[in-house]
Amino acid sequence: MRTALTLAAILMGSAAQADTITVAGGCFWCTEADFEKVEGVSEAVSGFAGGTVEDPTYEQVVSGGTGHIEAVRIEFDPDIVERRDLYDLFFRSIDPFDDGGQFCDRGYSYTTAIWVDDEEDRAAAEAAKSAAEEELGREIVTAILDDAEFYAADAYHQDYYKSQDRLAFSSVGIAVTKETAYKRYRDRCGRDDRIREIWGEDAPFLPSS
């Protein structure tokens, strides 16, 4: 049975001095895949935050009614990458103007958010949001919220973007690996096209041409 995550529970074998942030950027597979590329990030865990139901399942969250959003808890070494830098990267990995979901995924469970656990964390998140608004010249709808219980999604959803497990059937093909299904989903969902439209070619997680 899954339980609310503590740092030790979600990140086995991680360094004692590691820190974490929790963000929601739409599909958690995509956010996890993006941030595991960042130097200084040791782990990104897909899960749920912000709701009222204890230990929710994926099916409960996406069907609505639990109040949770698909989220990712990111562990990082603050000696290598700063919290503020991660928030800057986060805003440049989403559509910060969309309050109805992200890209092809619609509904509250796919909206964007940052959960902060103290005033220093809030200041870093607010500074990144303000900088993004200034750069884009528009108000950003991403909420900055007080810390909430984080629940890991089940093993099926972890590291989906690089898994070689095969899916007997999926909406993007038959007998394809999760890695292949993820790439096709991300492309068809229009995530990178929309990010490129907002942030330009220097957005941090765009695929190389």
Observed structural traits:
globular; 209 residues; 7 helices; Peptide Methionine Sulfoxide Reductase, Chain A; alpha+beta; disordered N terminus
Give your account of this protein's structure.
With 209 residues, the protein is of the alpha+beta class. The protein has a single domain (7-157), classed as Peptide methionine sulphoxide reductase MsrA (Peptide Methionine Sulfoxide Reductase, Chain A, 2-Layer Sandwich), CATH 3.30.1060.10. The chain has helices spanning 7-10, 28-35, 58-63, 83-91, 119-136, 178-189, 191-199, and strands at residues 19-25, 41-49, 69-76, 101-102, 105-106, 112-116, 143-146, 150-152, 166-167, 176-177. A 6-stranded mixed β-sheet has the order 7-6-1-3-2-8. The protein has a two-stranded antiparallel ribbon with strand order 4-5. β9 and β10 form a beta hairpin. The chain is globular, with a radius of gyration of 16 Å.
Number of strands: 10
Please tell me how large the radius of gyration is.
16 Å
Order of strands in the sheet with the most strands?
A: 7-6-1-3-2-8
CATH topological fold name: Peptide Methionine Sulfoxide Reductase, Chain A
- On the 0-100 scale, what is the average pLDDT? 91
Number of individual domains: 1
Overall form: globular
| Tally of contiguous helical segments | 7
Main sheet specs = 6 strands, mixed
Structural class, by secondary structure, is: alpha+beta
Order of helices and strands: HEHEHEHEEEHEEEEHH
Top-tier CATH class: Alpha Beta
CATH homology-level superfamily: Peptide methionine sulphoxide reductase MsrA
Distance between the termini: 43 Å
Secondary structure: helix percent: 25-40%
Which CATH architecture would you pick?
Answer: 2-Layer Sandwich
Which range does the strand content fall in? 15-25%
Parts with pLDDT < 50 across at least 5 consecutive residues:
1-15
